[in-house]
Amino acid sequence: MDSIKTLRHTIHTEIEIHPELKASARRYALFLPTLKSRGLRMVARYLDKRLLGKWRGQKTTFEEIFIRRQDGTRLRLCLIRSKKETKPNATGLLWLHGGGYAFGRPEQSVSYLERFVADGHTIAVAPDYTLSIDKPYPAALDDAYLALSWLKENATTLGVRPDQLFVGGESAGGGLAAALCLLARDRGDISIAFQMLFYPMLDDRHTGKAPDNKAPGWSKKTPQYAWQLYLAGKDGLPGISAYAAPARAKDLEDLPPTGAFNGNLDMFYNETIDYLARLQQANVPVHFKTFEGGYHGFDVLQPHTSIAKEAARYLDDLYAYARACYYKAQPTLMREQKDA
User: Fold this and answer.
1) Distance of CA 294 to the CA centre of its chain
2) Do residues 80 and 62 touch, judged by C-beta distance below 8 A?
3) Among residues 72, 114, 275, 335, which is most buried (max CB within 10 A)?
4) Cβ(44)–Cβ(131) below 8 Å
5) Domains of the chain: residue spans and CATH
6) Whole-angstrom Cα distance, residue 267 to residue 200?
7) How far, in Å, are 11, 115, 237, 274 from residue 1 at the CA level?
8) Any alpha helices (H) in 122-217, and if so which ranges?
9) pLDDT, tens digit (0-9, with 9 covering 90-100), for 25-59
10) Distances (CA, A) of 33 to 39, 43, 165, 216, 310
11) How far apart are CA 152 and CA 146, in angstroms?
12) pLDDT of residue 13
């Protein structure tokens, strides 16, 4: 694991893309130029056609479940199980997809969900949360909390142990996972045993100096447009809630143990390092690894490269360790035990 204290004070400039990623970086740059609001909407429509309702997992099954929101509309949940028999007392994983809060669907996270679910020790729920092109914050967070509540309430029926609910996500999904953990801690009615923040989008203020590089994907301005959509143009202004932009949180105590990784060419690298360092200062266990020369989402875009395979091994070890070590009883169970 990397030392967060050391990394936090390192300014990364003119970093070279990993040799195996250079060719794909050029292709990726052509696919995702600087995206303004209109471009984000175009990507959302494109991904809907390619992803919605189409599960490409080879070792897992896919089921759609619809639950009611308070306003009567329905939230789609994707329930992912192993094709093998699910083991007793499985881990319950809530997974939140990326896409700058503006685009994407749960189906795009197939590589992560396959990795964590395939062996039968985990059941995953991936909510199709409201995108910012439809409604700004807090719609996505409300959906995430509703999905987490559903997972907790149905844990026994699903074969999930209530004291091992994990939350995770990639990119904006990682930011939403961090926000969800803050909200669950503060409400006090759902316990989360572990959070996974993969190259998370955390800070609307862009206060951390981004790496000076020509990495593909998110340009220096693209996250600003994404935050503008998500926060209805209030990004960067005082008074934004930490539930919207977790990097703004002042109190990080009592948050779940955290696992994370990032490439040092990622636009969110420095804000990730800063957030993890602050978690450590709040006595939260942190597991983190930097991948030199890796850009945003490199492991998903180029899974056959040596750097992506190294990341995959790290995630396997991280998840196995978390499953073996991290548990947290639900508040209702703790009260019942105290009353007994």
Assistant:
1) 18
2) yes
3) 275
4) yes
5) 4-339 (3.40.50.1820)
6) 10
7) 19, 20, 35, 16
8) 139-153, 155-158, 172-187
9) 655 554 444 456 667 778 788 888 888 888 999 99
10) 9, 11, 37, 8, 28
11) 10
12) 47
